[in-house]
């Protein structure tokens, strides 16, 4: 029944580095959720293939259907009875939606800026990494494409008309992101996960957003320094890495 | 506003008490204002009423251009101009009026998360329905948005706004959604709000906060605005505690308004 379908699930995502199974936030969210829900997926990294340009990553292939983007993939896995949230109350399910919205609105713009728009980080870390993982000649195309998408996303959602300049919004998005990290820290408290003792989809989302910022070797990032001061959040990431992504089987 | 300007405004704000002549500007009510702007404006009005701060509502055709950030509504208090709910909340806090002081850190985190949920889902859905759905855009949004202007300016402004909103929808990944998917997202958002509210009078039990104002603004506007189809309002009506929540706030804070 479902076991047969489960064996045939394949996940396309970006590869790993810096101690993480994947450096790409969306891919990391899905990888973490599959671990939490106990779903067996074959992970095919798109590194060094033409899929770095052509495919939308992450993508879950199961039989005839292909699902993209973290939220639809998580919903799809839930329908396949891989549900990490079944023990949550209705109120906790509502809280999950709210906190994911908080991450999207307050943290994502600053993360996009840190990795893709900040000149020093982009030139020294992000572009070399993605260029080295793309086949020639895509190494010239893939990083700038991501950088343009990131910049336009920040400006369109946070830029204030009529002056769409990045410098004006930088201060605001970073202060929003620091506040968001603080709020996550307050909510997490001393627990291992956000809802009790077993991880849920919210933990997957928070892990996906926070872990790259925590682990990447960014040359200049006040946001990373701020994150490293939040002990419970960094402990949260390390705990998930140790329990679910130990070095013996990085992909499961 | 940049951070330095915000800090300066806060300092200036703290110096003076709330004047009687505070005004809130929004587009023309009968002919011009659209669903999303009306919702945001109502949210700010509800918040100010909850704080007990008097404000006059003034309708201007060029309110959007007068606003410092290009977004509706904005308030003119003393010699400062502040737009959008979050900066206005901070502004009133600097003057010593706040609804969320009694919350602890975890509750405040929850409140902010739910406010982002409303912004992320309800506001984006409103914008989508207004500008990305061709039927609504042609019948309602474009005519209303351009009603104060004569041709050809009306056409140019309406299409420019539509193009701008569609670009934004594409950037946040809503460009590929169908109308049914958007309605479904609204339904899930309302379900989350309904479950969080439960049987309490307000989201944080006895006292209203800015979250209550924001949710009221959006839900009440959706319920009382005529669109091409009633499906959006129907989604909300299926949650009875949200309906009684809206009615309660309307009766408590807006009972002297002649029209809503």
Automatic annotation (TrEMBL), chain A:
Pfam families: GST_C_6, Tom37. GO terms for biological process: mitochondrion organization; protein transport. Signal peptide: none annotated. CDD domains: GST_C_Metaxin1_3, GST_N_Metaxin1_like. SUPFAM superfamilies: GST C-terminal domain-like. Residues 27-145 form the Mitochondrial outer membrane transport complex Sam37/metaxin N-terminal domain. Residues 177-240 form the Metaxin glutathione S-transferase domain. One of its GO terms (cellular component) is SAM complex. It is found in: Mitochondrion outer membrane. Keywords: Membrane, Mitochondrion, Mitochondrion outer membrane, Protein transport, Transport. Its main location: mitochondrion. Belongs to the metaxin family. This is Metaxin.
UniProtKB/TrEMBL annotation, chain B:
Its main location: mitochondrion. It comes from the Eukaryota. Residues 40-135 form the Thioredoxin-like fold domain. InterPro entries: Glutathione-S-Trfase_C_sf, Glutathione_S-Trfase, Metaxin_GST, Mito_Protein_Transport_Metaxin, Thioredoxin-like_fold, Thioredoxin-like_sf. Residues 187-249 form the Metaxin glutathione S-transferase domain. Gene3D superfamilies: 1.20.1050.10, Glutaredoxin (3.40.30.10). GO terms for biological process: mitochondrion organization; protein transport. Keywords: Acetylation, Membrane, Mitochondrion, Mitochondrion outer membrane, Protein transport, Transport. It is found in: Mitochondrion outer membrane. Interacts with MTX1/metaxin-1. Associates with the mitochondrial contact site and cristae organizing system (MICOS) complex, composed of at least MICOS10/MIC10, CHCHD3/MIC19, CHCHD6/MIC25, APOOL/MIC27, IMMT/MIC60, APOO/MIC23/MIC26 and QIL1/MIC13. This complex was also known under the names MINOS or MitOS complex. The MICOS complex associates with mitochondrial outer membrane proteins SAMM50, MTX1 and MTX2 (together described as components of the mitochondrial outer membrane sorting assembly machinery (SAM) complex) and DNAJC11, mitochondrial inner membrane protein TMEM11 and with HSPA9. Belongs to the metaxin family. Involved in transport of proteins into the mitochondrion. This is Metaxin-2.
């Amino acid at each position: 029944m479902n076991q047969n379908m489960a064996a045939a699930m394949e996940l396309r995502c970006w590869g790993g580095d810096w101690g993480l199974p994947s450096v790409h936030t969306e891919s990391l969210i899905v990888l973490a959720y599959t671990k939490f829900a106990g779903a067996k997926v074959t992970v095919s990294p798109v590194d060094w293939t033409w899929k770095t340009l052509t495919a939308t990553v992450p993508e879950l292939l199961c039989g005839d259907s292909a699902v993209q983007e973290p939220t639809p993939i998580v919903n799809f896995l839930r329908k396949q009875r891989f549900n990490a949230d079944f023990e949550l109350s209705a109120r906790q399910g509502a809280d999950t939606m709210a906190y994911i919205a908080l991450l999207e609105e307050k943290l994502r713009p600053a993360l996009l800026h840190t990795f893709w728009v900040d000149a020093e980080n982009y030139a020294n870390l992000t572009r070399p990494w993605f260029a080295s993982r793309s086949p020639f000649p895509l190494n010239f195309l893939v990083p700038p494409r991501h950088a343009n998408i990131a910049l336009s996303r920040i400006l369109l959602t946070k830029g204030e008309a009529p002056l769409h300049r990045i410098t004006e919004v930088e201060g605001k998005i970073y202060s929003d992101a620091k506040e968001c990290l603080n709020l996550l820290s307050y909510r997490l408290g001393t627990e291992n996960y956000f809802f009790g003792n077993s991880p849920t989809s919210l933990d997957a989302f928070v892990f996906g957003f926070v872990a790259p910022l925590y682990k990447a070797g960014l040359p200049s990032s006040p946001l990373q320094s701020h994150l490293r001061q939040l002990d419970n959040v960094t402990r949260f990431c390390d705990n998930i890495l140790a329990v679910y992504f130990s070095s013996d089987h990085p992909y499961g | 506003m940049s951070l330095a300007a915000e800090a300066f405004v806060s300092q200036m704000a703290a110096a003076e008490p709330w004047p009687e002549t505070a005004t809130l500007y929004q587009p023309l009510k009968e002919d011009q204002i659209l669903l999303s702007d009306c919702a945001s404006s109502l949210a700010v009005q509800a918040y100010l009423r909850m704080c007990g701060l008097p404000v006059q509502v003034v309708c201007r055709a060029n309110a959007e251009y007068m606003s410092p950030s290009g977004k509706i509504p904005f308030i003119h208090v003393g010699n400062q101009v502040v737009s959008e709910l979050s900066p206005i909340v901070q502004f009133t806090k600097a003057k010593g009026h706040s609804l969320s002081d009694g919350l602890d850190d975890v509750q405040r985190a929850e409140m902010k998360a739910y406010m982002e949920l409303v912004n992320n889902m309800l506001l984006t859905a409103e914008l989508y329905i207004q500008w990305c759905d061709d039927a609504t855009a042609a019948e309602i949004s474009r005519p209303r948005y351009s009603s104060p202007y004569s041709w050809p300016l009306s056409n140019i402004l309406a299409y420019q706004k539509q193009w701008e909103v569609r670009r934004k929808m594409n950037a946040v990944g809503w460009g590929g959604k169908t109308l049914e998917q958007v309605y479904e997202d609204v339904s899930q958002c309302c379900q989350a709000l309904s479950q969080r509210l439960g049987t309490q009078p307000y989201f944080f039990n006895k006292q209203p906060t800015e979250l209550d104002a924001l949710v009221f603004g959006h839900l009440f506007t959706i319920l009382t605005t005529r669109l091409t189809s009633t499906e959006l309002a129907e989604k909300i009506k299926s949650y009875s505690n949200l309906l009684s929540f809206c009615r309660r706030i309307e009766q408590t804070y807006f009972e002297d308004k002649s029209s809503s």
